[in-house]
Amino acid sequence: MRNWWPLCCGILLTAVAIHREARRTAAVAEPANAQLTDAKSRFALPIEGGVPYAIGVATGLATLNLEFTDTAEYLLIASSLGDAARTFDLELKSAELDAGPVSNLHAVGRLELRPLPTVRPNPAPAGTRPVRHAASVNSESSARRDFFVPVGGRLEVAANYACVHAQRIAEGRQVRVYHDPVQPTHELDDGAIAELIRLLDEEILPKSAELLGLHEDIDQDGKLAVLLTPRLGRLGGNTPLGGFVRGSDFQPGLPAPFSNHCDLMYLNSDLRPTTRLKALLAHEYTHAVCFSRRALAAQGGAWLDEEDWLNEAIAHVAESLHAADWSNRDYRIARFLDAPQAAPLVVPDYYRSGRWRDDGCRGATCLFLHWCVEQSGAGLLGNLVESPTTGVRNVERATGAAFADLFRQWTIALWQSGRAGNHPRRSGGALPRNAAFGLNLRGRLGTANLCGPRPIFWTVDQPPPPVRISGTATAFLVLRAPAYQGIRRIQIQVEPGCELQLTLMATNVSHSIADCR
Questions:
Q1: Which tens digits make up the pLDDT trace of 239-275?
Q2: Where are the domains positioned within the chain?
Q3: Residue 10 in this model has a pLDDT that exceeds 60
Q4: Could you tell me which CATH class the domain 137-298 is placed in?
Q5: What residues contact 371, with CB distance under 8 A and at least 6 apart?
Q6: What span, in angstroms and rounded, lies between the C-alpha atoms of 236 and 361?
Q7: Disulfide: which of 26, 203, 240, 317 matches 233 by Cβ 3.0-4.6 Å?
Q8: Per residue in 139-153, is it b (16+ CB within 10 Å) or e — as a string?
Q9: Do 281 and 196 touch, CB atoms closer than 8 A?
Q10: In 3D, which of 377, 414, 384, 392 has the Cα closest to residue 472?
Q11: Nearest to 287 by CA among 261, 262, 264, 304
């Protein structure tokens, strides 16, 4: 036994030493393992599939650490809330995981709007002087009338207007139609003229009386003047103008030729009695109502003209409320969806900005206000029209929500429209209520075959694509890395003034995106 005792003691001492070394090694390794685990939880952002997240942006920079697999992809909605007159280049970078900080993020909740109470429209023209005796309506004095028509160039230059010695050719209960004699009368479509009068008398004006009210009878003759002229065909460039209404005509204080001092709608004399005619008339008559209300209010004090983007948005949404077809909007919506990053929403003056008749911009403003009305109800239009404010402030006042929140929710709705779980209630006619988006932007709309917003794809272990966005426009970036497994560090940086807004969603879109344009 005495011979084994030294051996047992040696074994025991050796075991104690090994145990102590193991504990020491574990104590050294434990912080490293904890640091690695902490790094993974700290750097791999907790993204739940299909949930939109708002990403914090500090001084134009955002950093994300995203885990990629062969099927995992992410949608990054990059928007600028900056000046629509500017464009901004996004600087995109991707690298393997390192130890830098990441941006904050939080799930985007449902936006609860607090719209103003619905404004009751004025059911009749708000003339301040009594309408002339009915006998004068059909007198020889109304048989001929001079109108000043813009013929191209800067609108503030008097030489850019032509004096048209128009002739009365037809009239209804509330409409009087004039003809530009530069075109022979036999070239006019009598059926179109009759349908024009019927639509305005029996559908457009009565419906507008319910929605927004009626136009101001500026010249107090009891009728809305409509001028048919071929000159509009030379004003629209490659696409002839179908019609327009000028706010200056509703301002009696402006001198001729800049104002005709009457309630006037200009229409291209090539019009035909198709379904497109109702959309055109509903749109232009809504402009007449909006200009009227602003002009009337200005008589009691300063009242600014509504900004162009919102003015057009109201008129486009009114087309739906009048149950008109999509012929005045489908191609504009398609153009916007084809390159949303190049179509700014908030353009106060289309003409001065060089975006007059920019189809992408018009598609953007149509869809934005369409979505806002879906969330708030059709009464939103009346609140926008009967407002002393303009543009973004007007929208915020009428909805009770910040424009940045509205913009983010709208861009999310654009992407989700037509996808599984977001079925539209209807594709035309009266607007649905409380829907994520009532339009299917991945289906047929009028004559357009829509595929949703066209995304920009970036394989993040490859060089990034160039991304340039206009102020108040949005780029939809799909981030993927099929050949890379692990966490990538993504950086998005932009110059000052962009007011970058980022929204992130985990998704798998490769097999659901089809280029059907």
A1: 678 999 999 998 888 899 999 999 999 999 999 999 9
A2: 37-111+304-517, 137-298
A3: no
A4: alpha beta
A5: 409, 410, 413, 437
A6: 16
A7: 240
A8: eeebeebebbbbeee
A9: yes
A10: 392
A11: 264
